[in-house]
Every structure is written in C-alpha cells, then in structure tokens.
Amino acid sequence: RGNVKITINGITKTFTDWCREHGKTTGCVIHRVNKMGWSVEKALSVPILVIRRAKIAADAAKATRIEDAA
Known about the structure:
The protein is mostly helical. The chain is 63% helix and 11% strand. Strands 1-2 form a two-stranded antiparallel ribbon.
C-alpha cells in the first residue's frame, strides 16, 4: 500500500500533503470527491465554512416552508 500522488498545475504531491496544504482533512476531501462528485481541485479549494453556511441557509429555508405550510 502506497501513498496516492496527485498532480495539480504541474506539481506532484501526496494526497495527504495536498490536504494539509489546503487546510482540509483527508476525510473531507474524499467525501467531496466520492459522494458529491467534485474534482480534487474543487474539493481542495472551496472553504469548508462556505459549505456549512450553504447548508444552514438551506435548512433555514426548509424550516420556513414548513412553518408557512402549517
């Protein structure tokens, strides 16, 4: 079993090194790529906070729709 090496913009590093450099956990990036269908570049570059804010906004909108229906 070896390290997975990824080349981005002509620079080759291990997957773990790319994650560390971008401040992401390997689990976060794997989830974004495998479950959400993102490219590795997008998974590394999009801040985690942006995703959380979008989810919070979506949950709030859903709650508002439920309250309006009642």
